[in-house]
Amino acid sequence: MLKFKLSAIALFLACLGYAQSTISGKVVSEKGEILLGANVQLIELNKITTTDIDGNFVFFEVEPGVYTIKAQYVGFFDVSKELIVDGDLNTAIVMKENAMLDQEVIVNATRANAKSPTTFTNVSNREIEERNLGQDLPILLKMTPSVVTTSDAGAGVGYTGMRIRGSDATRINVTMNGVPVNDSESHGVFWVNMPDLASSTSDIQIQRGVGTSSNGAASFGASVNLQTDGFSQDASASLSTSVGSFNTTKISAALESGILSDHWSFQTRFSKINSDGYIDRSAADLWSYYVSGGYRSDKTLIKAIVFGGREETQQAWYGTPEARLTGNKEALQEVVDLGGEYATQAQVDNLFNSDRRFNYYLYDNEVDNYAQDHFQLHLSQTLTDNLYFAGALHYTYGRGYFEQFREDDDFANYNLNNLIEEGTEISSGDFIRRRWLDNDFYGFTYSLNYEQNGFSAVLGGGWNKYQGDHFGEIIDSEYFRIADIPERYYDGIGEKTDFNAYLKVNYQVGKINLYGDAQIRRINYETVGVDNDLTGYDTGGDYTFFNPKLGFTYEVYKNAFIYASYAVANREPVRSDFIDAPEGVTPEHETLHNVEAGIRKSGTKFSYNLNYYLMKYNNQLVLTGALNDVGSSIRTNVPNSYRAGIEMVATYKLTKAITWSANATFSQNKIENFNEIYYDYAYDDDRFVSETSYQETDISFSPNVIVGSDIKYSSKGFTAQLFSKYVGKQYLDNTSNENRTISSYFINDVRLAYTLPFVKSLDIDINLLVNNILNVTYENNGYTWGYLFEGSLYQQNNYYPQAGINFLAGLNIRL
């Protein structure tokens, strides 16, 4: 009888196990208002969804049991409640408004929203966490529309970058909590200086095109707006660790205090990342930290943030010659004979005996060593029911060098005299040198925000000051005592002041929202000193730019909008444009006219965005192949060029467990008239310059086709994802020469994740990411250079090979 009862109970439990239920409901405020876009989560199953336009949500395939459901919405207190599931269940979640100022006010002034007539993509904290196993932030964003990523070391750790719509990092405005991040002189962003920033980032918005007015560098192709972690309601601690190919390891620990005494909150994180890299001798040793603390009340928010890190990265900047990738021995010998970069037998042997992981640099300590610390103090204050102020003070301190071994280098390159030993004159020898950059960047940003009865306005801007010191030192020499060598063999300074003010206005008239945005930027840049090639310089520029923007959105039907906008952006030249320009030539500033038009719709089952863009440039600065009087590459202005394309983005819920997100960009990127310059070193007079003209030629590094796909299956705590990315052919220069291209590539990554269900007091996630699962051989970046000699052309392409199949496995524990 006992056996029969036990068998019956077991059968009953088994039936329950297969009797899956549906949990549905609605999220509303205490006033009965529908809360669209609220996050709703089943904690034990690690399932998350958002409410639709009617405030509804649903979870499918839930087995009987006891669960905790949690709802979150900006401006409201989190709500958690326990549910007992033994069949289909419908529940209402009522949320209480939180009168305290929220972290969102810090970035509100520089963000686009559903009614903005611009093109943008929001990346949530959840999406960031899913792929965050140690790779740099650009790699985590590679599936977003129109994005192409690069990695010098070939494995996504170390020096990485991204292009958006073909625009490189120097043309992408990046802000952190509304504070500028771009380097003031190069305009670039060096993500390696901020390792594991993703672990302290709550969300990211990428605006393509000019976008809305922001602070810092010109948004000349796109902008990336990051927001760091905000106030957390509950105390927590987490430990994340991962291991993977190429001896890649990451460990990150974080603590959050939750809300203390109803007002205070603190967060801290420390991370350590190491990787040998895919390319030979391309190891990265990275550490970073993040500390924040703040106070908030119903009218005041004060938050202090300190973050930064230190990186030591072996240099893999040279790339791999095309001949090394093909293995053609005749072409390799030509590289040795004509390339001029292989002066010793060790270098020649390295070239011939290596493979696609080739690294030109043989010196073990050929490293980039840099530290950067960021300090931010934010204040947000409600002034009236319709008016609030947000402001920030910031300071960034950067310092570091890259170290190089120079074999048989001329003494004259270091302003040193020749030596006489035993009657023989010596003019060259081995050196180890460091080229330094120490800089300070500080300033403030502000915004005054007003909203009432369908009208909103933001008056904002900022003032920033940059001071940079570029210098070189010799730390070892074959023939000279260090004490006898001047402390610095070159030294130069750069100072830049950047002021901007903008006014943004939105006015709702029925279903039409009218948008206007006008910005004034005032830049003064001066740089003076001796460059690393020992040539003197004293240059810079003084600019005043007016950048207007206007547009509209029209609600066609519920949650579906058409939009159109026109915007102007102006951009000053970078440091190298000034210093490397031919004598007597001052580079001109660039101007961009940007048209965006499209339709977007969001929904719980199907969302999409179809967008057309035209980006027309005046005086765009491009590489021509020309060299200055000491052999450095220079850029020059081309009168007319453009980018035009169509972007398609869609997300569709195929089944209860499967979601498919996809994006595609089809574009043309052209320079109307371009002159390529070659030097013929067989001549000593004006005949040494050869110039070729091109019409309607392609802009370098601008693929005509970019396609991304993300198929995700999620059920019962298990997730499987397939990421696919296709990038079309890219030209290495502006000549549309088929012999100077990066071939198209199609890459697939697979992610598997599981949340352990049996530990109630802990969230434990296991994550496996397999990159390039089809083991495709490809390169995603490169460069080309060449010259004439007695009328014959020598041209060399160098590439940055990427890793074949490789993996990262992670464990995340949160309590």
Structural account:
The relative contact order is 0.11. The chain contains 7 helices and 44 strands. It is globular and about 95 Å long. It is mainly β and 815 residues long. It has a 22-stranded antiparallel β-barrel. A 5-stranded mixed β-sheet has the order 8-13-14-11-12. It folds into 3 domains: 20-95, Immunoglobulin-like (Sandwich); 103-228, TonB-dependent receptor, plug domain (Ferric Hydroxamate Uptake Protein, Chain A, domain 1); 236-319 and 359-814, TonB-dependent receptor, beta-barrel domain (Maltoporin, Chain A). Helix content is 7%, strand content 58%. The longest helix has 17 residues, at 2-18.
Shape: globular
Assembly state (oligomeric): single chain
Distance between the termini: 45 Å
Tally of individual helices = 7
Structural class computed from helices and strand pairing:
mainly beta
Summarize the main sheet: 22 strands, antiparallel, barrel
Helix content: under 10%
Cα-atom radius of gyration: 29 Å
- Average residue pLDDT: 91
Number of strands: 44
Strand content: over 45%
